[in-house]
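>> received
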Amino acid sequence: MLSLIRRPAPVIEFVCQPQDHGVIAEPKPAKSVLPDWFRKLPPVDKEHLTVTNNGLTVKRCMPFFDAMATGWILPLAATVRLDIRDGGRAVEAGWEFDRVMVSNHGAHQVAGNPKEPRPPCKFHNHWSIRTPPGWSCLFLPPLNRPPQPFECVAGIVDTDTYAAHIHFPFFATAPDGLYVIEKGTPLVQVIPFRREEAAIRAKIRPETADQAKQRETAHRNTIAGEGWYRRWARAAR
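>> returned
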């Protein structure tokens, strides 16, 4: 009788210099660092539960949760202070840690961007990220989380071949003032993916009768009883 052999799951590695291990904030699975507001939110708000309102909150919205819980959170390595002035046109950063934490980009590099006149800055990351052959990483602002005084710029890196540190451009988005960004603050969400899966082609056309029936059935099941998507349509995580 043939036995099924399971291939080991792909592994993403976050590697730092030995002297930084145990000192800088470590990456964590995104689902392990859900924001407090979401943890405290009840699945059903009984104050809004009526004959015409099921009282459900976003706590029961699996697409919302899955976006927030996918991948890893890469945090700020050490505490940084941001001084934002002149309507955001000037940003100064300071820190005590013995590694560079923030540097600047030339404004000409992103001329015409929608965040102007705020200058582009860059958080320095001290983790090298390594993925198996054929795997890249999408880096983007942490999904469905409270806003920070800054917003990092999204990007994709082929982390199977690029072993150097990946730093994260950002814009200071808060009003003028002095902000303390604590060690461990989420900087970006890291979502690994197979590049071959990203090479999907698109067809744009009217739906068929079978597809219309499938769409209507899924919609009616969703509204007929709570939890249908979670139990029947959502893939196991």
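>> Residues 13-198 form a domain with the Deoxyuridine 5'-Triphosphate Nucleotidohydrolase; Chain A fold (CATH 2.70.40.10).
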